[in-house]
Structure formats: structure tokens, C-alpha cells
Amino acid sequence: MAIYSTFLQRGYDQVVHDVCRQNLNVMIGIDRAGLVGGDGETHQGIFDISFLRSIPNIVIAMPKDESEARELIQTAYEFEGPFALRYPRGNALGVDVSGPVEALPIGKFEVLMEPIDGAILTFGTTIPMALQAAMHLRKQGLRVGVINARFIKPLDETLLHELFAKKVPILTVEEALLAGGFGSAVLEFAEEHGYTDSVTGRLGLPDEFISHGSVEVILEEYGLSVSGIEMKMKEMLTHFGKLKANLL
């Protein structure tokens, strides 16, 4: 089934009781996932991660481009259980989609740039800006990596253990509500596994209804931009350096 993110709010009870409680093989295509620009204030698709993440059995994913979307559709088709696939309003990126399609391992992130001094974890529409920010930082000698967290639930716990064990700053970026979102899931993971000395940060949308406006303007307003990500990561790296100095 396919439905706008904002309309899925009305079907929450059906998702819980008629799909997830029975662990049915249902793929929910979540259209307009994220900011929607001209569709208007009431159609901002920013709540679905927060209200779906707490439901048992469901997988939540979002592709970085149309090629990965094909792979995630195949993954959902083969998966035994509920699968929510988010995708944004607007045009695709124009990447090649002529190759074969294979299912992806459930809960497996993708390393796009190797994290050495810091890591940016993001997914979907914010991948390009994260890559640009990381490139800018590398030109300044800061070897920040980018992780495609295409599975919002379940998390790639193996990779997260590796990142937290490195004791490098970890920044999550999401075009969605921060409260109960992907960044919250990463913080919950850190707390659950005792990574209390980690330096973590989150960029996303605040606990408020987002007004009507162009996607670009709204993203810039809330720091969801190349410069916003770059600035936040620099702040975290500075704090991390001071923290290490205090421990020596």
C-alpha cells in the first residue's frame, strides 16, 4: 500500500493492530516523507518515524536514491513482516537503474566515506548535503565520514558498536522530527550499551509544527544544510578535543 506520511497518522491504529500485531507481510510506501514545500503546512511528513519506531515487528527504511529504492522494494518484498519504505516528494536524482536488483541485509548501513575523526549518520534526502559537508571538512584536515543509515529501524548495531568504540564524535542528521526520531534511537543505543563518554549530536526538526515554505529555506532555517552540518561537526570536534585534553 502507498500513502502520504501525513495521512498515515490517521491509520495508526490499523498499522498497530491490523498489520504489526499480526506481523503481516505488508509494505507501506510512505509518500511525502519529509518536508513537502508547495503541498502545504498540514502535509509535512515529519512525524512518521517517531510514531512508527515504537511499534514492534516493523522495519523502517529510506533510500538515498532511486537505485537503492529498487533494492529496498525488493528487500521489502522478500521480508517476512511489516516494512515501511519512506520516500520524498519531488524528482529522483537520475542515477542509473539499469542493473540487477538484489535485496539488502535488514538493518545494514552503508559506509559512504570512512569515518576516522568523526561520523555523520544520515539517510535519504540529507545524504548529498552530508557528503558535501564531509568533503569540506576533509579539506580542512578533519577526516569525517558519512554513513548511509538507510535502515532507521532496526539499527546497524555492529557498525554502531564500532563507531562508539572508536570514541569519535557522532552526528545524526534527519529531515524529520528530532523527538523520538532516528537520532533518539542512536542515543538510546548508546545509553543501553554504556557508551556514556561519547560525544553525540543531532540535527533535525524541532518539537513544533513546521510552517509552509520552500524546502530549501526551511532546511536552512533549522541547520539542515551543508554549512549547518559542517558547523555542528566542528563544534563537536572542538568539544571532543577539549574532553580528551581534560582526560589526559
From TrEMBL:
Family: Belongs to the transketolase family. DXPS subfamily.
Protein name per UniProt: 1-deoxy-D-xylulose-5-phosphate synthase
Gene Ontology biological process terms, A to Z: isopentenyl diphosphate biosynthetic process, methylerythritol 4-phosphate pathway; terpenoid biosynthetic process; thiamine biosynthetic process
EC assignment: 2.2.1.7
Keywords recorded for this protein, A-Z: Isoprene biosynthesis, Magnesium, Metal-binding, Thiamine biosynthesis, Thiamine pyrophosphate, Transferase
Enzyme class: transferase
Top-rank taxon, per record: Bacteria
A GO term for molecular function: 1-deoxy-D-xylulose-5-phosphate synthase activity
Gene (UniProt): dxs_5
Cofactor requirement: thiamine diphosphate; Mg(2+)
Subunit organization: Homodimer.
